[in-house]
C-alpha cells in the first residue's frame, strides 16, 4: 500500500496555489500590454497627420506623458499617451477665442503658424471638434477585451495543465 505524507501534499498544494497566482498576475499583465498596444496602434492610425509629430509622439507607459489614457484591470494598468501639450485639444476639441490674432500665412489651403510673423488671421470663435483618436481606439479594444482575456486564459490553462486535465 502506498503511503501519502499529508504535510508534503499540503506543501505542494501551497506551492501550486502560489504558482497559479503568479501565473494569473502575469496573464493579466500580458492582457493589459496587448490591449495597450492595440489602443496605441488604433490611436496612431486615427491621429490626424499634418507633419506626423502627434502620431510619432504616442507611446505606452511613458512617465513624461502629460496627456494619458489609462487602461485598468483589477491590478494591471497601462497608459497610452503623449508628452505634447496640444494633444488634449486634438482629442477633445476646443473653442477658439473670438478676435484672437494668430501669426502666420496660408500655404494653399493650410495655415502655417509662425510666431512673430507680421501677417496672420483673426479667429472667429467657433468650436473645433475633437478627433477622439484615443477614446475611439479604447472603445474598439474594449469591444474585443473578452476575446483577449479568453485567449490568455486558454493559454494559461495549457501552461498550468499541460496534460489537458
UniProtKB/TrEMBL annotation:
InterPro entries: HK97-gp10_tail. It holds the Pfam family HK97-gp10_like. This is HK97 gp10 family phage protein. It comes from Brevibacillus aydinogluensis.
Amino acid at each position: 500500500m502506498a503511503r501519502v505524507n499529508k504535510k508534503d501534499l499540503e506543501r505542494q498544494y501551497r506551492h501550486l496555489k502560489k504558482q497559479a497566482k503568479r501565473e494569473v498576475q502575469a496573464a493579466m499583465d500580458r492582457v493589459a500590454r496587448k490591449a495597450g498596444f492595440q489602443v496605441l496602434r488604433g490611436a496612431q492610425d486615427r491621429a490626424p497627420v499634418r507633419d506626423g509629430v502627434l502620431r510619432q509622439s504616442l507611446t505606452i507607459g511613458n512617465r513624461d506623458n502629460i496627456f494619458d489614457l489609462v487602461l485598468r484591470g483589477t491590478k494591471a494598468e497601462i497608459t497610452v499617451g503623449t508628452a505634447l501639450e496640444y494633444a488634449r485639444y486634438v482629442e477633445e476639441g476646443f473653442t477658439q477665442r473670438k478676435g484672437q490674432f494668430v501669426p502666420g500665412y496660408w500655404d494653399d489651403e493650410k495655415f502655417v503658424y509662425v510666431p512673430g510673423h507680421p501677417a496672420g488671421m483673426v479667429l472667429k470663435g467657433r468650436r473645433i471638434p475633437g478627433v477622439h483618436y484615443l477614446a475611439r481606439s479604447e472603445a474598439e479594444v474594449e469591444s474585443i477585451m473578452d476575446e483577449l482575456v479568453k485567449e490568455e486564459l486558454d493559454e494559461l490553462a495549457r501552461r498550468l495543465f499541460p496534460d489537458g486535465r
